[in-house]
Request: fold
Amino acid sequence: MNIPPAYLVGIGGAVGAVLRHLVGLLVADDRLPVSTLTVNVVGSFALGTVTFLSVGSKLLLFVGTGICGAFTTFSSFSVDAVRLWEANRRRAALGYAAANTAGGLLAVGLAWVLVRGL
Reply:
């Protein structure tokens, strides 16, 4: 089956957006934007995994660009951090920014270790 690349990205994006919404419902927290942190770390792990597995370009478009692209969210992370800062929750804002950055990098590192260990 020869599915055009744009369709792969679009279908994957639809899947990722729905998953993002469901995580938002399941991991809601009024104090901190935990759902955004969750999707960014999980998405980093998923993208790292498919990348390090050296899957074909079509699967990488579907999962990496489509699903992970719609599932993760740098823009929400940025807005959330600024909102925490504006609410005078400076430590929370800095901790949240650090957790997103370190969590994403650690998740990709874990994917690398797990895939390379196979």
In short: Helices lie at 5-26, 34-52, 57-71, 74-86, 90-116.
